[in-house]
Design brief:
Blueprint: H1 50-55, E1 65-68, E2 75-80, E3 86-91, H2 107-116, H3 119-148
Antiparallel strand pairs: 1-2, 2-3
Length: 149
């Protein structure tokens, strides 16, 4: 016996009768769309002048819109207030003031200054004050000893 093999031959398919087929159950629950993640960004755009910001529309939800000036000299914010008016604030960079040039003292200048101080008078005053404090402490101790006996 000899088999003829035909690679293009497709055997007939058997179909089930329509009455035996079952329909899948219908799901009556509503389809809930997943929330799209909002990107956090600043509202606003670059403007040429503050006058342009005054004419710009802003969101009515109270969020702040930012309008940097194209020349970099300021950032203008604008938001709606609870009374319905808009508030515009201008933020300008602070220019750092040039600090005075720091000068350092040399060791010779420091030694001259130390020698020019009249330390003997200051030391005498401090010694006198210390003697006075010692006397007061002794008197307090004697008073406490007398009361304790």
């Amino acid at each position: 016996m000899f088999n003829n093999y035909n690679p293009y031959y497709v055997p007939p398919q058997r179909y089930q009768p329509m009455e035996n087929m079952q329909t899948p159950p219908i799901n009556n629950q509503p389809y809930i769309q997943p929330r799209q993640q909002q990107t956090m960004g600043l509202l606003g755009k670059s403007v040429d002048s503050i006058d342009v910001v005054k004419a710009m529309d802003i969101p009515l939800d109270g969020s702040t819109s930012y309008f940097p000036l194209t020349d970099g000299s300021a950032i203008v914010t604008k938001k709606i207030q609870t009374d319905g008016t808009s508030k515009t604030v201008v933020y300008k960079p602070v220019e750092s003031e040039d600090q005075a040039k720091i000068t350092y003292v040399t060791s010779d200048e420091l030694n001259k200054k130390i020698q020019s101080l009249d330390a003997s008078e200051d030391l005498k005053t401090i010694k006198d004050e210390m003697k006075s404090i010692k006397k007061q402490i002794k008197e307090i101790q004697l008073n406490l000893d007398d009361k304790g006996d």
